[in-house]
Amino acid sequence: MSNLLRLDHVSRHFGGVRALDDVSLALEAGRIYGLIGPNGAGKTTLINLLTGLLPPSAGEIWFADTRIDRMPAYRIAALGMTRTYQNIRLFPAMSARENVQIGQHLVTRTGVWQRLLWLGSARQEEMALQGAALALLARVGLAAHAEQRADELAYGQQRRLEIARALASNPRLLLLDEPAAGMNHAEAAELAALIRSLATDGRTILLIEHNMGLVMSLCDHLIVLDFGRKIADGPAAVVSRDPAVIAAYLGAETAPDAAPEAARA
Amino acid sequence: MGGLQNFYAAHQALIYFMGINALLALSLYFTLAAGQLSLANAAFMGIGAYTAALLTIKLDAPFALAIAAGALLPALVAVPLGLPVLRLRGVFLAIATIAFGEVVRIVALNWGFTGGALGLSGIPAKTHLWHIALALVVTLYVLWRIRGSRMGYAFEAIREDESAAKTMGINTTYYKLAAFVLGAAVAGVAGGLSAHFIFFISPNDYGFSQAVDILVYAIVGGIGNFLGPVLGAWLITLIPEYLRSAKPFGVGAGWETLFLNGLILLLVVLFLPNGLVSLFGRFRRRPAPAPKAEESIVDVESAQA
Fold it and tell me: What is the pTM of this model?
């Protein structure tokens, strides 16, 4: 199987609400995908299904040749898929560096025993991981804030810290749920440069974003959801001219309703 | 030297209890550090006390073996208990663990092997102060090394946001269970050690009020740091002794102790929510968070609305 991620006829119902309805799609490794659609289209639900926070009502999800729909979230993360959250979910009382170090859980080999016995290898790995955490913080522009509490950081900084935390386990697939929400143009431009540099590392990125400028500048490929159904899937330039997409998307754009999806997430 | 020995002789029991109660408070710290409010540790203490005492009384087992068994059995019980109950959150977990404590108490009360309501008496006095000190030092060392380790970060992540922890690849069930089992073992050691200097144990020593006492030690001391529970245990253990000797209210330690314990808990929860240990942290804490961060969140939200 050449696809990194594949969804086969995946649905998720909440009572009578079809948050996702028979969605099939495939992601190839090493590209930046944009997942767009009006608020309430099911984008965040899709990410929650992928990361194992919700089980699908029907369908199969395959990641890295492994079936992952029924797998606990921590095992899916171990296969190489991490995410950020639309409503920021950092560990608020911990420092920026500690947040990233929690993200390193999957790449940490030393257990408590080695630390109890004060083994040199434990100390070495600790120093290496701490160095890696600081390097990641520098990469997202938070080098000066490593020891600051996460909840003391400015909003845009918190979003970038979430990306650093998600990167800390060196995932193959990175899911970014509205990373530019609430950012100004300068911050969004910096973010775009960061995301592009992550993709050149060979990482696959699925980007949920309402900022169409950002999406069009970054994504090779767009997937469009509307009312839980996939209405378009293809090269960004083609999809962005699709009349169905324009109807669905511009229709929502003129009625700003950030609240419903935020409340649901 | 003579003065010190006299002091020790006069206050030996108090010093022992300060150590035991500190161990109990630390046993609860394991689960609290992972964000789990479990009230099972009094029962684990009881299982440890009965296991160790029965081994020395009935089998004349070596003391070290009895204490080791007193740590192992509660830890083993904690696994099948923890797997279902740790799925519960907050107050539901607390209630389930209180129920477990009652089950243990009722079993000990009605089982002939454990002496029923009469309890076990004539437990040989084998606990020395250095045993308690050693257990305390080892527990503190383990907690110190867990901090900043893969497990320590996992505990903190679960406490702060369990779902987010899962998507970081943390097996939350495993780590919650590990905290539960480690706490059970430490509570079991405290039970075994205390049984071997109080000579007599009975089921009601390990009931609900003991469970609440342990919680009060930890909360009064503060759970932001593993030294907090020790501090809280020492303070709450010293109060009745102070009342007994200084008689600030003109009488001994009766209702005044309970009253003062309750008052201290109330004051701490209201004015020092992070416990007594936060008093020490205040002097070297970073300056208060810049208001800038909060303002920007407000701006962003109002801009979106």
Answer: 0.87
